[in-house]
Amino acid sequence: MEAIQNVINTMVGYLWGPAMLVLLIGGGVYITFRIGFIQLRYFTYMWSQTFGNLFRKQKQEVSGTLEGDLTPFQAVTTALASTIGASNIVGVPVAIYFGGPGAVFWMWVTAIVGMATKYAEVVLGVLYREKNEQGEFVGGPMYYLKNGLNAKWLGIIYSFIFMLTIVSGIMVQANSAAGSAETLGISPIISGLVITGIVAAIVIGGVKRIGKVSEKFVPFMAGLYVLGALIIIIANITQIPSVFALIFKSAFTGHAAVGGFAGSTVALTLRNGMARGAYSNEAGMGSAPIAHASAKTDHPVRQGMWGMFSVFFDTLLICTTTALVILSTGIWQNGDISAAGMTAQAFTDFYGKAGGTLVSFSVLLFVISTIYVILYYGERLAEYLFGHTFSLFMRYVYLIAIFIGAVGGLKFVWLFLDLLFGLAIIPNMIGVLLLSGVVAQQTKEYFNSEQYYLKDIKNKKSA
Questions:
Q1: I need a surface site. Which of 100, 162, 168, 452 has the fewest CB within 10 A?
Q2: How far is CA 423 from CA 125, 160, 165, 284, in A?
Q3: Nearest C-alpha neighbor of 32 from the set 318, 308, 320, 317
């Protein structure tokens, strides 16, 4: 077993090394140029079409003329339910621990580049979506690889690898949830049964129930954690200017050893920051367009705006909030605390025992949301490969995997998670890069059209 684990770890090391970062970050930079730096040029427009639209219903939605199964907000919260996970709380301090404060800067850079990649994925996901046997819209990398690139075989490879990844991912996530529940005094068996039951109640209702749950669940869980973190940041507001100075300086110089921190080189800082950013917002992994393909929208680009917003929300808001808590409190310099436990300790130091409970509860909520959405992704992948009946069979395989993972079973399967994730990225990024010209054409059409962007601008001026 140890020999197999060493082989897998070696393979993961190569797969998630410089080549993967070049594919994800380099690919994102290439897409950014192809679509004219849309995430920077149209940032305010993106904001108005996403967050700014949450408090007003579009006339088309009310009249029911838009095709799709979910509202744009339900689609993005469903996608966010997957990307906002335990890594937002425990992964960021790990990046700081190994890469220093400068890792946060490279995490930001990765997010800005990732906004373009996620935008392209979502545009393609909506553009090449289909209707399944039940009349529901389905899409994702497998469909734009088949319909856009005429490479059905590549879509099959992506679907098969990612379907297996879901099994491993569910087990790991369930174990994290059970671990958080255990800190609250709940045994893994009980938490495993409860989590399995909650997820089953959500996913058995289909995509529309998933969307309805996500639009309420995600804002609550994210708001609870961010509010708790912001109070700590405000209490340490005098430290924030020096924290930002430290982040920018360390990004280009590395950081010398201090307190419990062993020090880092610029290479370590860059690698840890970029890896954390890429892993957190999932830009390039192809998961988000599976959810976004169900959205009610009048144009793929409009839904693409929600794709960009999701990266901003996940990395530039939640991950940054965690980073500022870790750095402003100085907890990252404490050598007696593990990297993964820094956030919980910072909350405990500030709020007392209730702080640790809040973090554990937040991790539990984040993980449950991730589980029910990636299970939905797994169903769609299975449906693409073998049809609707097989997808229902896989639904119950995934539900069983939740309980097995919660109680700590089949840990051997967990070893393959990072390896499978990395392998799934390759065919997806091939498709996104080769279809980037289509994304550019759709973008140009949207922003030059009297029906879409120009109409929105006129309406805004007349409002």
A1: 452
A2: 20, 11, 10, 12
A3: 308
Q: In the structure encoding, which two tokens stand for residue 262, read together?
A: 């062993």
State yes or no: pLDDT of 348 exceeds 50: yes
Dist. CA 373–CA 366, nearest whole Å: 11
Query: 223, 190, 199, 208: which is closest to 374 by C-alpha?
Result: 199
- Residue 340: which of 331, 349, 352 has the closest Cα? 331
Report the alpha-carbon distance of residue 251 to residue 136 in Å, rounded: 46
Instruction: Give residue-wise pLDDT tens across range 183-220.
Output: 788 899 999 999 999 999 999 888 788 888 888 888 88
Strand locations in 29-183 (E): 130-131, 137-138
Bridge partners of residue 255, in order along the sequence: 264
Beta carbons of 79 and 85 less than 8 angstroms apart: no
Residue type present at position 167 = V
Whether 278 contacts 425, CB under 8 Å: no
Contact status, residue 88 vs residue 318, Cβ threshold 8 Å? yes
Instruction: Provide the strand spans (E) within 85-177.
Output: 130-131, 137-138
- 397 is written with which tokens? 């395989």
**How many angstroms separate the CA atoms of 210 and 95, rounded?**
32
Q: Which of 287, 310, 291 is nearest to 428 (CA)?
A: 287
Ordered structural domains, the chain, with CATH: 2-54+73-437 (1.10.4160)
The secondary structure of residue 137, as a DSSP letter, is E
Residue 23 has, within 13 A of its CA and on its CB side, a CA count of: 21
Q: Which two tokens stand for residue 440?
A: 């550019």
Record the pTM: 0.89
Q: What is the largest CA-CA distance in the chain?
A: 68
DSSP three-state, residue 295: strand
C-alpha 194/C-alpha 208 separation (Å) is 22
Tell me the one-letter amino acid at 327.
Answer: L
How long is the chain? 463
Do 60 and 66 form a contact (C-beta atoms < 8 A)?
A: yes
What digits encode the pLDDT tens for the residues 100-111?
A: 888 899 989 989
